[in-house]
Amino acid sequence: MKDTLDDILVIELGTVLTAPLAGMMLADMGARVIKVEHPEGGDPFRRHAGTLYSPHFVAYNRNKESIQLNLQTEAGKADLAKLIARADVLLDNYRSGVMPRLGFDDARLKALNPRLIQCSITGFGASGPYRDRPCYDAVAVALSGIAAQMVDPAQPSLKGPSLSDNITGMYAAYGILSALHARGRHGQGAKVEVNMLEASIAFSPEGFAQYTRLGMVPNPLSRVAVSQSYAFRSKDGRLVSVHLSSVEKFWQGFVQAIGRADLLDDARFQTPPARAKHYEELAGEVAETFASRDQAYWCERLQANDVPHAPVNSAPQVMEDAQVRHLETFYEVRHPEQGAMTAIHRPVRINGQRGPSDKAAPTLGEHTETIRREFGLS
């Protein structure tokens, strides 16, 4: 069970993030993923640090092989056709219409390989008024309504990791696995289509349910107020995150932990709906208390009272966290040219096993000659 997809061959025509993430998820489960890259520079994510092996590329391309093919030439297209003929999955995140222009429309792909699972990732779908627009993470985050729940209109600024990109890649992997399962029953290939707009909408259904059922338009405080989620700055400048939910024992434990039993008698805070309604007032009251002691003190007090909480960790603090170290989430891999580097294990265990995630991201064209010989390419 360590290599649940070890009989699956994936050809990835992926750049930047969505398709590479989906391909990496399949590779982490044991699939063989051959990444097809243009000879001049390859995946644009390679160049983000001024080299052809940037941290951005490394993060989304472990456990893959790389072959250089120029799909603008007839020889390159012929080689791709040979790879497709033997593949289980073809994965791309080109703009809608690019694959047909390259000579690989649905009919051609089916003729080349009737069992092929083709997964096409686009920004907005294969049809509609936005079909030909370029799409990146910030575009999909904004258009899908996610940004409206994260950005303060008074001080607008997009922050944090790529959301729509990662979300879409995960939905693509989910669709591919579903199609592979169905193929195992009836033997036929399928076309899986995923777009960043719909994937992002599907990832945040709560706000739309609130609007359609209650007429509430979600804003950046809507979810955190209802869930009673807070971030407080302690005396030493470090942050503590608290999530009280609607469970009364957590509220009781919280006020005991911070020595503010007086809040129990305040009419504004006596019920979960009241605390949600007066969220900002409660946050202001408690912020003064947290500013009186260091982070370590508050984490100890919250833990003693069984309150859901955590320090707000930076990347190095995450890597040194006791639970993360126990789980052995991070590990070292070694590339023959690039040397040792830190990698992240797949976050899924099957029968207690993670699988052999031990191959560093490939250098550009690293496996070109090996793959050429194996598949009889030009």
From TrEMBL:
One of its GO terms (molecular function) is formyl-CoA transferase activity. It is an enzyme of class 2 (transferase). Pfam families: CoA_transf_3. Its EC number is 2.8.3.16. Keywords: Transferase. InterPro entries: CoA-transferase_III_domain (IPR050483), CoA-Trfase_fam_III (IPR003673), CoA-Trfase_III_dom3_sf (IPR044855), CoA-Trfase_III_dom_1_sf (IPR023606). Residues 366-378 have a biased composition (Basic and acidic residues). It comes from the Bacteria. Residues 350-378 are annotated as: Disordered. This is CoA-transferase. It comes from Bordetella pseudohinzii.
